[in-house]
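Note to self: keep these together.
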Amino acid sequence: MRFSPRAVGLLAVVVTVTIWTGFIVIARASAQRTLTPLDIALLRITGASLVLLPWGWWMVRRRVQALGASAPPSSLAGISPLPLRTTALLGLFGGLLYALLAYAGFFHAPATHASVLMPGSLPLWTALLAAWLLRDHITPLRAAGLALIVAGDLLVGGRSLLAAFSGGDVWKGDLLFMLAAACWATYSVLARRHAVDAVQATIAITALACLVYVPAYALLIALGAVTSHLAQAPWTEIAFQMAFQGGGSVVVSGIAFTRMIQHFGPVRSTMITALVPGLSAMGAVLFLGEPMHWSLVAGLLLVTAGILVGVLRTNPSPAAPANTAPRRAVP
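Structure:
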């Protein structure tokens, strides 16, 4: 059965929103348990690599057998189906920096802050980068939506920044969340600019992250430069992190998000995630017992309103066919 491009795009939206919501709540809960941010990043990368690296090797081998010398170049010992430069760019922002910054943020700031600042600031960064790199036009209505997002982010981040003068460190987590969103926005725009296939892009960022991060992590542990709590963590926690952070957040969500970019474009895709701030904030209150201050509620409402303005009042970009990369290079 073949689905229409619109049906594939809408399914990608549902999958992305669900996993992103769970990611924020689960990552904050994980920060309160045994593992360190570097440990969780390792399990995320290794969990995804177990699925994606054999897939990448098979994909490259099959393409070479079919096309021979005319096959497009692959990289990283034949496990990334994309050229080396594209793999490095996408992998740096979408594979390495995003995970490290996001997981570190959860060790300083609550999930309610992450629910506003990560998916909330993502449309802002994406719109600015798309305007710069893809010559995408920021309409007056979209600018109004982005202004609401900035106001909401300032309400949330400004409160913790003021608390820093009395010794608080929540602002560190807020800053890390904003930087993580900027990295994911950069990946989104680059994925559109290079017109990459959803599966190939996800394999490429995982391949780079695995070949760079895993040896660096092992070296730092051997030198005593960082501390690992993997030996103290129960095997159930390790298995769960590999399955959810690696299999869910990278493999399933990564492919779904990139597919959403192909159909809706990078700016509209990041704005479609309007449900994530509200759902994840509710999850943090219900499941983690986090308080909901007035500034968080106001910031959440402003961010959600800003995202909705950008989604509902912006004409969608022409959809690319579901089984091909988009031709329009405007991130």
